[in-house]
Give the backbone structure.
Amino acid sequence: MTISNADKKRCNAALDVLATKTLSYDWSSSWASVHDGATSQLGGLKPGCRQDSTGARLYWVGLFNAGSNKRVQPPPLVQASFDHVPTTAEVVAALRAQLGWCVC
């Protein structure tokens, strides 16, 4: 899925906010909202997470447009997978990498 430059900028701004938080996750097989995601500060975006139920059982984290109920609305604008439970810093770095932003 191609993401527009405007959405890349929104995601990058949201990641700036998320980098200052400590996120907590509910790992289920379907997308669920991330706790402590500061949705009101993310410009209409919401972080979400899920874990594969089969195979490698990867952990996925993504940024979504938030609905009026502040729940994730799949598909994610950007997502990244991990083979372990990621830290907030790992999530932010991986999502920035998916967006193509330099973290220098």
